[in-house]
């Protein structure tokens, strides 16, 4: 039955009609209320699902976000109108790389599946490559430090070397990950790096044979007078356990004081650095702070557990970065441990690696970290309490072993060889880059001492022997280590032992023979 118009509502109707009309209006109202309740219930369930369910509202609506419209348009234009077929995955990877690059942060990076796999290798037990930590700085791929006993170290690669080419291909403008992909490779294969070093006018080339690089990160030895030298080369998953083993071994050998060495240590896992810091800092003392955007600083305190109870010094240099600096800051400011050496690298940010669904990885800076006293050391580094420089000969460039340096040769390589021979105690006359009579005599003397064929010509094995002899001298006459040892002996009250005389040594040998 038709409902009445408004102007008819006041007319008198028979009882039956009035009752019937009233029944119809009640039914319509109930229906409308049921619809309203149903709509509200549905909306409520939807909001609940989007808020607490697996799919968030922002994900449902993300394709409609206005800031992405330009990106979609560009993607469609390239996909549909570019004159050649385009790989869709490469377009997406390129877009993500572009976003990361726009941050202008050398520590943030996007890695595809293959690159992410290699990144994981870097913190695992071993990988194949040359064994050097690299980083993009001001548009150049730069060596942070070579790994101890690696092919890179043996070839003479040094911190702050800038790699401009890999196998003749320019890597100017490459990201760190892109450069690593070129430099790494299978064991036994060769890679040639073109390097710019310091104030040298001409780039130098070095060919390195790749090898398996074991991530053994702790090396220990007694250096006399009951002092142990423990070197930590990086902070990986097993470093803390390796250090505990090294400390136990040194204790068995009578260790009464310890020199911890993080020179040329580019860093690694934050968790590892904190575990190691905890060994030297009393429970409840601050180790470091993390400051994320818009949040209050998160303070990390030392916890209970075994603590090192003997005097300690810490060795640092310009290759000590990131996790090494966290350790240095904590040991210095919360435990009063003396730092010896040179100012550290200066990396005061924290990165988070996020694994994506397809195996790729997005690593970017999520916070900055502060020392216990609230200092942000980014791009400034940590200064040592006792500054000790490397000897000048420690930074000499390597010499190309394919060269033939002989009487009459004039070159920068000759000057380098002269400086090396002088550091080893040979008289070359004037260091001027000219291979003359005195240089010839010095080379012949060196070859005789090394039991090499005496030719007076520096090439091949003679050049290798020269660089190896200099490396041995650097290790044996380490001024930073000697200073750190003297300081810690004084703190521990250890008196230096008298050097053994030749007669005493002969008597010891005779006793052993009997």
Automatic annotation (TrEMBL):
PROSITE patterns: PDZ. Residues 116-184 form the PDZ domain. The keyword Zinc-finger does not apply. The chain crosses the membrane at residues 29-52. Gene3D superfamilies: 2-enoyl-CoA Hydratase, Chain A, domain 1 (3.90.226.10), 2.30.42.10, 3.30.750.44, PGBD-like superfamily/PGBD (1.10.101.10). Keywords: Hydrolase, Membrane, Protease, Serine protease, Transmembrane, Transmembrane helix. Residues 492-514 are annotated as: Disordered. InterPro entries: ClpP/crotonase-like_dom_sf, CtpA/B_N, PDZ, PDZ_6, PDZ_sf, Peptidase_S41A, Peptidoglycan-bd-like, PGBD-like_sf. Residues 497-514 have a biased composition (Acidic residues). It comes from the Bacteria. Pfam families: CtpB_N-like, PDZ_6, Peptidase_S41, PG_binding_1. Belongs to the peptidase S41A family. This is S41 family peptidase.
């Amino acid at each position: 039955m038709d409902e009445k118009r408004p102007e008819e509502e006041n007319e008198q109707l028979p009882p039956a009609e009035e009752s019937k009309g009233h029944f119809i209006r009640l039914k319509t109202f109930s229906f409308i209320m049921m619809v309203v309740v149903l709509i509200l219930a549905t909306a409520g369930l939807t909001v609940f699902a989007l808020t607490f369910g697996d799919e968030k509202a922002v994900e449902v609506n993300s394709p409609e976000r206005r800031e992405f419209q330009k990106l979609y348009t560009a993607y469609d234009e390239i996909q549909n109108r570019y004159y050649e077929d385009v790989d869709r995955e490469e377009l997406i990877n390129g877009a993500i790389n572009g976003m990361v690059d726009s941050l202008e942060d050398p520590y943030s990076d996007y890695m595809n599946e293959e690159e992410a796999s290699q990144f994981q290798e870097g913190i695992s037990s071993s990988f194949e490559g040359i064994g050097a930590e690299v980083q993009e700085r001001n548009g150049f791929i730069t060596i942070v430090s070579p790994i101890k006993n690696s092919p890179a170290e043996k070839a003479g690669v040094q911190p702050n070397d800038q790699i401009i080419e890999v196998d003749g291909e320019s890597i100017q403008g490459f990201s760190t990950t892109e450069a690593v992909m070129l430099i790494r490779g299978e064991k036994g294969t060769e890679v040639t790096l073109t390097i710019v070093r310091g104030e040298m006018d001409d780039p130098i080339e070095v060919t390195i044979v790749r090898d398996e690089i074991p991530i053994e990160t702790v090396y220990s030895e007694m250096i006399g007078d009951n002092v142990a030298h423990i070197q930590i080369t990086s902070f990986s998953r097993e470093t803390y356990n390796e250090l505990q083993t090294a400390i136990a071994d040194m204790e068995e050998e009578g260790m009464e004081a310890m020199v911890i060495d993080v020179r040329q240590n580019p860093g690694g896992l934050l968790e590892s650095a904190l575990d190691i810091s905890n060994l030297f800092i009393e429970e409840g003392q601050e180790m470091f702070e993390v400051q994320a955007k818009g949040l209050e600083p998160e303070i990390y305190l030392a916890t209970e557990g075994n603590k090192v109870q003997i005097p300690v010094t810490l060795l640092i240099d310009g290759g000590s970065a990131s996790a090494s600096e966290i350790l240095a800051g904590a040991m210095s400011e919360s435990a009063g441990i003396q730092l010896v050496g040179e100012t550290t690298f200066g990396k005061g940010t924290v990165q988070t690696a996020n694994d994506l669904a397809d195996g790729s990885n997005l690593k970017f800076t999520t916070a900055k970290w502060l020392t216990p006293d609230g200092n942000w050391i980014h791009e400034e580094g940590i200064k040592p309490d006792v500054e000790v420089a490397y000897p000048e000969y420690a930074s000499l460039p390597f010499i190309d072993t394919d060269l033939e340096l002989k009487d009459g040769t004039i070159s920068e390589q000759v000057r380098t060889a002269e400086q090396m021979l002088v550091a080893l105690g040979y008289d070359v006359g004037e260091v001027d880059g000219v291979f003359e009579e005195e240089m010839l005599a010095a080379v012949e003397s060196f070859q005789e001492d090394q039991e090499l064929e005496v030719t007076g010509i520096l090439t091949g094995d003679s050049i290798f022997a020269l660089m190896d002899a200099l490396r041995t001298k650097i290790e044996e006459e380490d001024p930073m280590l000697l200073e750190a040892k003297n300081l810690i002996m004084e703190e521990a009250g250890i008196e230096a032992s008298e050097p053994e005389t030749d007669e005493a040594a002969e008597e010891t040998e005779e006793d052993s023979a009997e």
